[in-house]
C-alpha cells in the first residue's frame, strides 16, 4: 500500500489491486469545533451526575464526593474512548460535523488506537485550547495531532450526497449545450473526474466566494473548459462565465435527464 | 471502454447493497465472526466493488456513484486486509498475565525509567544536604512538605482528632484521579522523543529525594518510612512504569537499530502502552486507598512498625507479581508485541 500525501486535504490509499480511494482529511478548525461540542457534552453529563448524586447527600457526603470525583474523571477520560469505539470513530461532536477517526492506512480501527489517541490529549491540549495539537496538525501533512501520530489515525470528513443539490440547481432550466449532443458527448469523454469535480465544487460553493474571486474563478474555469471542448457561438453568445460552467456541470453530471 | 452507465448501476447496485449490509453488520457488532461461506461471499463482493470502482472512475459524470463506491471499498478494505486479531478482553487474564508479561517484555526500558528517577532522588538529596535553602526552592510548591519535619511529626503524633474524618473516601478518589492524570501525562510526554517523560521522572525523583533527606536529617526516618511506605511502594513504581510507557513511546519514535518504518513501530507498541497505563491506573487505585485510609495515621493510632511492615509486604508482593505472574517462557521471551 502507498500513501499519497501530495494532496493537502486528501489521503489517497492504494489497495493491492491497484484501486485507489481517497480519505478527505478534516481541517483543524472543524475538529476544534467538534471538540467544543464534546466539551459541552462532558460538562453537561458531569453536571447531571453531580446534581443527581447530590440527592444522596443524606446518606454520606463523603461517598457522594468520591463518586462525583470518579464520575467526572471517568467521563472526561472515557467520553472520547467510548464514543469513538462504539460509534465507529465518531463522538457526538464529530457526528454533528460529519467527521470520523479512521486508521491512517485504511485498516479497521482498533481499540488500542482509540485509547492511545485519547490519552495523548493530555499533551495535545497543552498549554490550553489544544495549542500543541493544533500546531502539530497544521504542520503535519495529514493533519494529525500528536495523539493521531502515536495511534496511526487520521480524522476524515464524510462527504454528503450531491444528488439533491444538483436536481435543485438545474432541474427545469434550459441548457443551450444540450442542443449539441455530439459536442456534449465529446466534452464528457475529454473531461477528467478531477476537472469535473472542481467545476461542481465551484458551482455548489459559489456563494462562499468574494465577488472578485468568484468572477476570476469562473472566468478561468470557462476558459479551461472552452479549450477542452469548444461549443458554437450560438450556444455561448451572451453567456456569463458562471453560466457557462453551470451548463458544463449540468451536462457532465445530469446524464439521465 | 464503452459503458452504459445507467444499465451498469442498475445491474451492480444489488451487489453493492449486499456488501454494504454485510459491512453494517460487522461494524455494528465488533465480536461478530463470519462463517466460511459468508467470508467467501464477502471477498467476492469486495472484489466486484473494486472492479466496478475501476470501471466507473474514468467517467467524469458519475462522481456520486464513484464516491459511493470509494466509501464502500474503503470500508471493506479495512476488513479484508486487517491482520491484527480482534481483541477478546478477559479482565482477570489481562491483569494477572498480560500486564506483568508486557512489563517484563520491556524490562530494560523500566530499568532506564528507574535509573532516571534514582538520579533525581540523588540530585534532590544532594541539593538538600549541601544547601538547606534549596529546600524552599525544591519543595516550596508543596506547602505541606516544606515545614520543619520535627514540628510536623510532633503535631501529627499529638493530634487527638481525625483530620480526615468524613472525607477519607473523597480524599482517596482525589489522590487516585490526580495520580492517574500525572501518569497519563508522563506517558504522553513520550511524544517528545522521551525527553518530556524523562524530565517528569527526574523531577518526581528530585522531590522524593529532597523530602526524604529532609526528614532523615531531622532524625525522623521512622516517621518517613511509616508515612510513605504503605502507599509509596505502589505509587512510586506506578510512576516509574508510566515512565516506562513514555520512554517506550519515545524509543519507538526514535527507532534506533530498527528497520521497521515509524508507523509500524508505533503500531507495534500501541497495545503495550494501553496495557501498561491501564495497569498503572489499577495500581494507583490501591495506592489511593492506602494513602487516605492508612498512610495519614501515625503513632499512637497505628504503630510505625505495623505500617512499615505492611509496606514491606506490599513491596514484596508487587515485585513477585511483576516478575512472576503469568510467566510463560514463550510469551515472555517473544520479541514481537501483541498484547490482549
Between the first and last Cα atoms of chain B, what is the distance in angstroms? 49 Å
Question: Strand order across the biggest sheet of chain A?
Answer: 1-2-3
Biggest beta sheet attributes of chain B: none
Count of distinct strands of chain B: 0
Helix content of chain B: over 70%
Quote the average pLDDT of chain A.
85
Number of helices of chain B: 13
Largest sheet of chain A: 3 strands, antiparallel
Q: Which residues of chain B form runs of ≥5 with pLDDT under 50?
A: 334-340
> Approximately how much helix is present in the residues of chain A?
55-70%
User: Which spans of chain A of ≥5 residues are poorly predicted at pLDDT below 50?
Assistant: 1-7
- Find the structural class of chain A using helix and strand composition: mainly alpha
Dominant shape of chain B: elongated
What fraction of the residues of chain B are assigned to beta strands by DSSP? under 5%
User: Which class best fits the helix and strand makeup of chain B?
Assistant: mainly alpha
Query: Biggest interface in this structure?
Result: A-B, 63 and 57 residues
Query: What is the succession of H and E elements of chain B?
Result: HHHHHHHHHHHHH
Query: Number of folding domains of chain B?
Result: 2
Outline the structure in words.
The complex is a heterodimer of chains A (257) and B (340). Chain A is mainly alpha-helical and 257 residues long. Chain A folds into 2 domains: 10-157, no CATH class; 163-253, no CATH class. Helix content of chain A is 59%, strand content 9%. Chain A has 13 helices and 5 strands. In chain A, the strands form 2 sheets. A 3-stranded antiparallel sheet of chain A has the order 1-2-3, with no helix packed on it. Chain A starts with a strand and ends with a helix. Residues 1-7 of chain A have low confidence and may be disordered. Chain B has 340 residues and is mainly α. Chain B folds into 2 domains: 5-80, no CATH class; 91-333, no CATH class. In chain B, helix 1 runs parallel beside helix 3. The longest helix of chain B is centred in the last third of the chain and has 34 residues, at 221-254. The two termini of chain B are 49 Å apart. At the A-B interface, strand 3, helix 2, helix 4, helix 5 and helix 7 of A face helix 1, helix 2, helix 3, helix 8 and helix 11 of B.
